[in-house]
Amino acid sequence: MAVAGSTCEKCYVLKGFYRQKRVKEAQQRRLDRFDGPGWVVAMTRLVFWQMLETGLPFFRWFDSGDLQSVHMLRQIAEVAGQTPVVRHWLPTREYGIVREYLRENSLPDNLVVRISAPMVDGPAPRSLGLPTSTVHGGEEGPGFNCPARTSSPPNCGDCRACWDWRVGNVSYPLH
């Protein structure tokens, strides 16, 4: 059960296709294979393949779920480092994992780790000095307001704010 008022309370992952058995099994397989031999090489190839197929040099990590360990972030950073022509966006609530990683490592320039606020209409987390994201329940939120929900079906279109280090906060409408 999600905390009342949290961004998880009405999360899209709790409904729709994400609740289907096949989707859950596929997500579990991905998690199980993360630490397997050749994961970085395989993901590097998949990221390049996606770019070639779509013509878009942008990759989002985790449409659901989150970082599981510093090792996972290190692996993701390695994939980003091996795909310098692709912009990577990693939304996360795992401040502790990111903080620990940053003690001894730096992020590749093409990997935007965007720290997510845990509560709807809550403040953007600023402790790590990284770009952030928030969720707003009203008409507008702080910083750049994500326009994806204004199109039908909702999509990014030409917007790439989430992948841009210079955009300090992206605020998503509650949906």
What is the secondary structure topology, with strand pairs?
Layout: H1 21-33, H2 39-54, E1 58-60, H3 70-82, E2 87-92, H4 95-104, E3 111-116, E4 132-136, E5 144-145, E6 169-173
Parallel strand pairs: 1-2, 2-3, 3-4, 4-6, 5-6
Helix pairs in contact: 2-3, 3-4
Indicate the proportion of strand residues.
Answer: 15-25%
Gross morphology is globular
Overall strand count: 6
Series of H and E elements: HHEHEHEEEE
Strand order of the largest sheet: 1-2-3-4-6-5
N- to C-terminal distance? 18 Å
Radius of gyration: 16 Å
Task: Describe the sheet with the most strands.
Answer: 6 strands, parallel
As a percent range, the share of helical residues equals 25-40%
Number of domain units:
1
Structural class: alpha/beta
* Number of helices, where a helix is a run of at least 4 consecutive DSSP H or I residues: 4
Your description of this structure?
- This protein has helices at 21-33, 39-54, 70-82, 95-104, and strands spanning 58-60, 87-92, 111-116, 132-136, 144-145, 169-173.
- The chain is an alpha/beta fold and 175 residues long.
- The chain has one domain (12-173).
- Strands 1-2-3-4-6-5 form a six-stranded parallel sheet.
- Helix 2 packs across helix 3 (70-82) and helix 3 packs across helix 4 (95-104).
- The mean pLDDT is 89.
